[in-house]
Each structure stands twice: as structure tokens, then as C-alpha cells.
Amino acid sequence: MELRTLTSSPRGIMGRLQPYQYIHDLLSQLPYAETVEEIEALLPWNIRKNK
Q: pTM score, two decimals?
């Protein structure tokens, strides 16, 4: 999947997330992710808008 696809369309994955907030949350939570499932949960398509 191209980054352009994630960010360019309002319907794209990043269109429903705030990019800065996503990166902040990702970098805050990633060091504590111990399993593949926990890491996959941090991918943008698995994040709910404004949790």
C-alpha cells in the first residue's frame, strides 16, 4: 500500500486520523507492545478515530 493512498484521500486511513496525534500515540505505546497482536493493533487501519 502506498503512503499516498493512506494520506491523500479524505476517505483514506489517515484521513480519519490526526497524523501528529497518531505518531505521538504510536511512539508512546510501541515500546510497551510485546506481541505481534499488540503491534498490529497500533497500525493506522486498526486505530479508531479519536478513541
A: 0.61
